[in-house]
Design brief:
Layout lengths: L1 H42 L5 H34 L3 H16 L16 H5 L1
Helix pairs in contact: 1-2, 1-3
């Protein structure tokens, strides 16, 4: 059914928006973690430096991955923001498509001339 394809598109767009927001928030969190680790290296005991730099490295890699995702999805988010009615219109269109695809199980025919047809007994 075509409505399934439209729903998949809508779901994909919603996931991109959610993932984008998650990654933006993650970048901010990783920035704060980075500062914490840098201060630990600067002000902490010398014996903790190796462990801290390992954690700092992991934080920087996670931050980089999130920044790459945000950079790649930026055009999509800009498009969605500049066409703010796109998603609501897509959702309305999905409803119309689902209505059109409903099976005609409740469809009835009312004979005009021949009243004793088998379908007349079902009515």
């Amino acid at each position: 059914m075509y409505s399934d394809k439209i729903k998949a598109l809508n779901d994909a767009i919603e996931k991109i928006k959610a993932d984008y927001k998650y990654n933006v928030d993650l970048i901010e969190q990783k920035e704060r973690e980075k500062l914490d680790y840098l201060h630990q290296i600067e002000l902490g005991d010398r014996k903790d430096v190796a462990k801290t730099t390992t954690k700092l490295r992991r934080t920087l890699k996670d931050r980089r991955k999130a920044k790459d995702y945000v950079r790649q999805m930026q055009p999509v988010i800009e498009f969605l923001n500049s066409h703010s009615q796109f998603l609501p219109t897509l959702k309305q269109f999905l409803g119309v498509m689902r209505k059109c695809e409903k099976p005609a199980a409740d469809r009835r025919y009312y004979p005009r001339e021949i009243k004793d047809l088998p379908i007349c007994k079902e009515v």
